[in-house]
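pinned: reference chain
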Amino acid sequence: MTDYRAPVQDMRFVLDHVAGLPGIAALPGYEEATGDLVDAVLDEAGRLAGEVIGPLNRRGDEEGSVLENGVVRTPAGFRDAYLKFVEGGWNSVPFDPEIGGQGLPWALSTAVSEMWGAANTSWALCPMLTVGAIEAIGAHGTAEQKARYLPKLVTGEWTGTMNLTEPHAGSDVGALRTKAVRDGDRFRIHGQKIFITFGDQDYTENVIHLVLARIEGGPPGVKGISLFLVPKVLVNDDGSLGPRNDLRPVSLEHKLGIHGSPTCVMAYGENDGAVGYLIGEENNGMACMFTMMNNARLNVGVAGLATAERAWQQARAFAMERTQGRDIATGEPNVPIVRHPDVRRMLMDMKAKTEGMRALCYYTAGRMDVAKRHPDAEVRAAAQSDLDLLIPVVKAWCTDTGCDVAFTGVQVHGGMGFIEETGAAQHMRDARIHPIYEGTNGIQANDLMGRKILRDGGESARAFIAGMAADAAAVAGSDNPDVAATGTALAASARALEQATEWMLATGPADICKASAHAVPYLTLFGNTAAGWLMGKAAAAAAAQGGNGANGAGAAWCAAKIKTARFYADHILSRSGGLLASIADSGDTVMALAEDQF
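pinned: its structure tokens
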């Protein structure tokens, strides 16, 4: 398996020229994010990822986590790597200094998170879930809950989880049966949850579970769900640890990939009931949990990017080293396979998609920073509108695309890709969970269609598409022919997305099943176009810099950036017309068969 090396140069370029980090650093509270500090953060994070966390990736896949005598044991080295992560303050990067954070932008934290995920997907899932728990408690917890739990969650001394799914319910959270029984000013939780990532581990002395449950006597369905904070070990008033709570992992799931990550079946209240504390208002648990889920959905999209980057690095190295066949242009025998045109096509496809994913993830994180920090309320609202629109796109498009990239990586290896020793297959297996995590991608597509497009009559989407179209016109006017061609292709893709959006707006109110049946290709079109838009912006910035780019972006690097964007335009944006046809011109074939005809 190829060693991981963080693509710091591309990360910094995208942060500056796509996510808008220089402007973000000028926002109130982000003044510490100077250029020198950003460089230091990226360099040091890249060192930890490459030298400490990355080498554990293969071991984690082979050893897996195990449950022994009620105790979860992670693969050798995972705990030590986590302790170094905590010692370095890496868990605290984006959080407010008043709760122990470093107060740095989410855009920068997103780049750092990509490194952890690319180095070791399984290992990175633990801090990813903790971030979401911090956000939920910070937004909805009481002052006492924040004071008691946030400081150690922010440092990473304790970890957090999210407990939604139950065996009988799957994604239908409203069908959950876990119950909460009043016990004075707290509750006793009884029930079972499945698919709980890092529901237990041997890293830390406490785990803070956020658990959805139904208070006895509450309304049925999602309107009767509440959110509870349920610690593995109870915390005394002085902050010291008390007795073990009535919860435990009863088994670990046997999975296709991410073997190093313990995915737990958790039992709550097998005896007197697990002590839990209400977060937010009664029967408002889904609203509280969505704070955590939206954060997690962005981070899962980043995980899709991260696995793609690792698969791309693996495939690139193999193609450079593997010799096989003749060069069809010169006849030279036994050449590196990177010389073969179809291998080049696969590598370019992997590279272009990975760069497009990075641009989309970092841009979205930058909009989060603006939504949180900008002093102008209207600017904050506009950024939040973009963020709400993009979250399902980032989650679904980046994870689907990450699977595509990892799949192609196996193909680049040929027969060797099917052999576990090369490591290519692990990336494909690990990537496959991401389209399922935090709401399957079909759910994300329906969220985009229903809650984001139809609910506001297309106002947010129309404004976003208009912005892309305006930028496309500017990029198409470039003096650089490759940049101009990218802009022209982007303009056509934006028109296709506009037409598809109008079709959704016309169809949805009259026939919601028909609109829903086309939600996934609509999201794919949206993701392809949005990433292409940002690739065009990056190409224009590279052309403007020439050979004088910051962070070592010389002429050859800038030229590669421009050519990669042109490939994206030629080979990915060119599919937009077909996606539009599959949405608007495909009739009712998705729902055409009766159930007994399948």
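why pinned: The CA atoms of residues 172 and 231 lie 25 Å apart. Residues 285-321 form the longest helix (37 residues).
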